[in-house]
């Protein structure tokens, strides 16, 4: 039997984008959060350059408020694939006074990541930052380009974006500018899960159903962690939950779930009616929350 | 899963956003939290219906003005296909966005307000779809509820559109006319009971029925090299692979190939995809190819099957859609990006401005933002391109302003 490659449109598109990045930029980096989207990016990057190693480093902006499972997973992946990992800490920006820690009930270090990211871009002179954002996540992201130019301050000028015509990507920039690149722009949450399933990609354990100490607030389920502010009347209990996204522990809510395998997660998502970012408290602040953060240089 | 890329075109208020919102709703692609947000916003505005357009108009400025000004990408899926919709604005001053949105589309939905019929905007939308050679077109005649679901009005609009169709040079397209009410979900995913006289497909049925043969063109195979893979590791010491994406048709191991622009020949030794080797890889796939001979191949080179090579030329004529604030002038220089290669070009002449409403062409001395015109270009080195009408993938380019780095225009080689 003749062995004929079956084309996966979204996968081929992502690989094409990765190769354009390496050809057009001098110093790209992959922003790695430890979540399923950035893990998927790593697999796609591997495919794009095989048998060569991934020709750029990974950058993790560490808020210090992590799920320990994610960090363990990250380190294992880096070792197995012989990746070059750079970690920069939000704590450092807090210590040197360039950002101020939020206080109160909804305090989170999520938005503080931006300053640390911009510092790292400057420190290493990165000209392209590859991220796992998808257009289906949020309506401001629906307008995002695949190559999205940011100015010296990391700001996104959404009304003045370069037209992206055909499949041709224009990565020309001035010194000081950089480009955010989104290879899985056109994937949906389900596409990512189906890919993880088909490719047998390992993901951190917190994506699967597990028993966890939680408390409820505003109808959402929060991890009872030293990093998450909790009122006295917010009672801790144990429940079977899993996470649909893996961000900073202070802004990532869990969902009740029995899904303990990729198959069951996919089944659950198919049936589910709560969108992925619905469990992200950072978007709930206002209708334009995401757009505002993006203008300021967020991922 | 099959992926279908669709563009939508319509004038402001024809109901484009509502129609897309409907498709999302009827395919259960809107989640409860998004729906709640839509309900909340609709109520705040005092509507007694759900304003689905809120699901798609992403930017704050757009929500304020209630219009779509940039291309937004929207996703929904059924058991059969994943759909990617590029929602584009309809005004003449957004021609560039329409071209951008349609440039990746395999099918288009053109909206017409049943009360207004075929208007100048419709001409433009149809023109752009023809310029880009989108093969599958659905003309959705919307707001049928506001014209008493009248078959007569529908038939008149279809007649007018067919009149327009006669003016187009691009004949290889399929056009379907469907009477709909986006607001009430009639003939979007569910058949309308109010229009028993219409026995055809709903919009979703039509899209679901499209096969990849219907919307993908088959043309000679081209492989633009993106980057050279050289691991230089112990285990792959001499590996030298060419990474790129195949267009047009498949490549097979053993194919005799010619490398452009050097015109050297070789044979495909292996086709790699990740850690596997394949004997054949189809159009659309991103692979790494190794050749039997040690030839010099770099980024920007095009690998084609021997005997199927396009001619190289240092001057070409093209239709250009201008996308920059600074007008395109004869004598000026730009960077031309043709797939993976860049070269300096000089604008030799601007032959004419093409009116997008089929009212004829005019002689002009420059092309302004959103103009479409015929342009002559002088290239700094030979380009091995095809005419867009024969090979979309190898017949397109963009022009980049070297001073601002902006993508200033999109070109279709004649
Ligand atoms: N009666 C009626 N109104 C509609 C229909 N489709 C859209 N509309 C209304 O027309 C207006 C414009 O729709 P919108 O989707 O925002 O148009 P867009 O500018 O093309 O995106 C809104 O007030 C819609 O509620 C329809 O089929 N029937």
CATH-defined superfamily of the largest domain in chain B: P-loop containing nucleotide triphosphate hydrolases
Average predicted confidence as pLDDT of chain A: 86
Please state roughly what percent of the residues of chain A sit in beta strands, choosing from under 5%, 5-15%, 15-25%, 25-35%, 35-45% or over 45%: 15-25%
CATH architecture of the largest domain in chain B: 3-Layer(aba) Sandwich
In the sheet with the most strands of chain A, the strands line up as 3-2-1-4-6-5
**Envelope shape of chain B:** globular
Main sheet attributes: strand count, strand direction, barrel closure of chain A: 6 strands, mixed
Mean pLDDT of chain B: 91
**Main sheet specs of chain B:** 6 strands, mixed
The CATH topology of the largest domain in chain A turns out to be Rossmann fold
Low-pLDDT segments of chain A? none
Largest contact between chains:
A-B, 60 and 79 residues
Structure characterization notes:
The complex is a heterodimer of chains A (299) and B (414). By secondary structure, chain A is α/β, with parallel strands linked by helices. In chain A, 30% of the residues lie in helices and 16% in strands. In chain A, α1 packs across α2 and α6 packs antiparallel against α7. Chain A is globular. Chain B is of the alpha+beta class. Helix content of chain B is 18%, strand content 35%. The longest helix of chain B has 15 residues. Chains A and B meet through α1, α2 and α6 of A and α2, α3, β2, α4 and β7 of B. The structure holds guanosine-5'-diphosphate. The site of guanosine-5'-diphosphate has 18 residues of chain B, from α1. Chain B: Its EC number is 2.7.7.4.
């Amino acid at each position: 039997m003749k062995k004929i490659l079956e084309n996966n449109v979204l996968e081929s598109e992502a690989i094409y984008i990765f190769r354009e990045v390496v050809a057009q930029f001098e110093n790209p980096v992959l922003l790695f959060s430890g979540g399923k989207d950035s893990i998927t990016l790593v697999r796609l990057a591997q495919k794009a350059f095989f048998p060569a190693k991934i020709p750029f480093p990974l950058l993790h902006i560490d808020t210090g408020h992590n799920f320990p499972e994610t960090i363990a997973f990250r380190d294992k992946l880096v070792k197995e694939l012989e990746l070059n990992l750079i970690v920069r800490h939000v704590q450092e920006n807090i210590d040197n006074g360039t950002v101020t820690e939020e206080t109160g009930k909804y305090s989170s270090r999520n938005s503080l990541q931006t300053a640390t990211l911009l510092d790292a871009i400057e420190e290493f002179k990165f000209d392209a930052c590859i991220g796992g954002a998808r257009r289906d996540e949020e309506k401001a992201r629906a307008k995002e380009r695949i190559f999205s130019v940011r100015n010296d301050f990391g700001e996104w000028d959404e009304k003045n974006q370069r037209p992206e015509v055909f499949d041709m990507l224009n990565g020309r920039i001035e010194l000081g500018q950089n480009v955010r690149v989104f290879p899985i722009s056109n994937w949906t949450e389900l596409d990512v899960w189906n890919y993880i399933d088909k490719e047998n990609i390992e993901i951190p354990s917190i994506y699967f159903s597990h028993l966890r100490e939680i408390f409820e607030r505003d109808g959402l389920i929060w991890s009872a962690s030293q990093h998450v502010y909790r009122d006295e009347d917010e009672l801790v209990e144990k429940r079977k939950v899993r996470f649909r996204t893996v961000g900073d522990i202070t802004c990532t809510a869990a969902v009740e779930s029995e899904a303990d395998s990729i198959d069951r997660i996919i089944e659950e998502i198919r049936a589910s009616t709560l969108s992925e970012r619905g469990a992200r408290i950072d978007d709930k602040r206002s209708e334009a929350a995401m757009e505002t953060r993006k203008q300021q240089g967020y991922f | 899963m099959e992926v279908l890329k669709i563009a939508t075109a319509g004038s402001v208020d024809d109901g484009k956003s509502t129609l897309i919102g409907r498709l999302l709703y009827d395919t259960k692609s809107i989640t409860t939290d998004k729906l709640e947000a839509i309900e909340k916003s609709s109520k705040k505005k005092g509507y007694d219906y759900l304003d689905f357009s809120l699901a798609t108009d992403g930017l704050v400025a757009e929500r304020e003005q209630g219009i779509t000004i940039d291309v937004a990408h929207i996703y929904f899926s059924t058991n059969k296909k994943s759909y990617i919709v590029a929602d584009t604005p309809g005004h003449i001053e957004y021609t560039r966005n329409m071209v951008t949105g349609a440039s990746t589309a395999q099918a288009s939905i053109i909206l017409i307000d049943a009360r207004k019929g075929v208007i100048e905007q419709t001409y433009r939308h149809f023109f752009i779809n023809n310029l880009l050679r989108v093969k599958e077109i659905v003309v959705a005649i919307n707001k049928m509820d506001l014209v008493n679901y009248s078959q007569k009005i529908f038939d008149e609009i279809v007649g007018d559109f067919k009149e327009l169709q006669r003016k187009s040079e691009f004949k290889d397209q399929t056009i379907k006319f469907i009477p709909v009410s986006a607001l009430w979900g009639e003939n979007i995913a569910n058949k309308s009971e109010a229009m028993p006289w219409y026995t055809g497909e709903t919009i979703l049925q039509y899209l679901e029925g499209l096969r990849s043969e219907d919307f993908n063109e088959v043309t000679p195979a081209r492989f633009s090299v993106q980057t050279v893979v050289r691991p230089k590791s112990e285990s792959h010491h001499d590996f030298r692979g060419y990474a790129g994406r195949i267009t047009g048709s498949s490549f097979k191991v053993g194919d005799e190939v010619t490398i452009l622009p050097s015109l050297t020949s070789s044979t495909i030794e292996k086709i790699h995809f990740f850690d596997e080797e394949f004997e054949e890889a189809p159009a659309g796939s991103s692979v790494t190819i190794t050749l039997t001979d040690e030839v010099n191949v770099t980024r920007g080179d095009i690998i084609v099957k021997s005997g199927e090579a396009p001619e190289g030329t240092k001057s070409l004529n093209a239709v250009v859609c201008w996308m920059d604030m600074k007008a395109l002038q004869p004598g000026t220089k730009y960077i031309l990006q043709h797939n993976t290669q860049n070269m300096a070009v000089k604008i030799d002449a601007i032959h004419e401005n093409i009116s997008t409403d089929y009212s004829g062409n005019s002689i002009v001395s420059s092309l302004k933002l959103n103009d479409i015109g015929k342009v002559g270009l002088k290239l700094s080195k030979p380009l091995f391109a095809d005419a867009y009408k024969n090979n979309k993938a190898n017949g397109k380019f963009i022009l980049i302003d070297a001073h601002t780095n902006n993508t200033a225009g999109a070109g279709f080689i004649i």
